[in-house]
């Protein structure tokens, strides 16, 4: 199930990279195929990049790219949704796969989107005017970094399930199995296998030195692509959510302190104090009581 969820994420990220380069840079299907050909020789080498290269080269009977004749409404069988439901049930932030599922849902309301396109405005231009070659490189880095995040999230979910159900998971073996003959097979999975072989109890894939360095080196290009996509009005939900997760994950302090205060203000849900982790309720207005929502049944 997690394999298929990651597959949803991989496919959505590739589609976003394709869309950004097509719309922002005005590249043809043949030009895009050439780019994916180059990408398949490096760190992004994978089955899905390979077939994307082939799809973009494939011509319809009139000689035009077949991909341009395919209706932009994506189907799904449910495994991505199951992954997201399981992530919610286990409290794991598998945000990228969630965005990939919702992107398919958004694509399916084609008629509504066509109506929206006639009513809702965006930026004056969706064209990128900077260095084209550098931007293409940045897109590859955004795709690579987001891919790392997606797999890290998938292994986080499996880690939580293993603790819950007392499973003894061989993460290195899982990566090797996925590399052997699955839709998401890639050179990248060899790096994951190496990380978990070296440290079977690795808390998070991002903590492995190889991936820590890889994300760090990709960060500037990643941020540039996400920022430019937003400025140009080109949707990039998976690439954007991956970056948001990364920034949230690397923050020792998040604004959930204010959220907890809000919950206690309107619902007496209590909060923990930083000093000693004790749970307390505050009478914020002077008009409430001292009874917390955790101390009574309603």
Automatic annotation (TrEMBL):
Pfam families: 6PGD
Molecular function in Gene Ontology: phosphogluconate dehydrogenase (decarboxylating) activity
UniProt keyword annotations, A-Z: Gluconate utilization, NADP, Oxidoreductase, Pentose shunt
Oxidoreductase in keyword set: yes
GO terms (BP aspect): D-gluconate metabolic process; pentose-phosphate shunt, oxidative branch
Its EC number(s): 1.1.1.44
Catalysed transformations (reactions): 6-phospho-D-gluconate + NADP(+) = D-ribulose 5-phosphate + CO2 + NADPH
InterPro entries reported for this sequence: 6-PGluconate_DH-like_C_sf, 6PGD_dom2, 6PGDH_C, 6PGDH_Gnd/GntZ, 6PGdom_BS, Pgluconate_DH
Biochemical pathway: Carbohydrate degradation; pentose phosphate pathway; D-ribulose 5-phosphate from D-glucose 6-phosphate (oxidative stage): step 3/3
Residues in 6-phosphogluconate dehydrogenase C-terminal domain copies: 1-285
PANTHER family per record: 6-PHOSPHOGLUCONATE DEHYDROGENASE (PTHR11811)
UniProt similarity note: Belongs to the 6-phosphogluconate dehydrogenase family.
Oligomer status and interactors: Homodimer.
Functional note: Catalyzes the oxidative decarboxylation of 6-phosphogluconate to ribulose 5-phosphate and CO(2), with concomitant reduction of NADP to NADPH.
Protein name, entry field: phosphogluconate dehydrogenase (NADP(+)-dependent, decarboxylating)
Chain's gene name: 6PGD_2
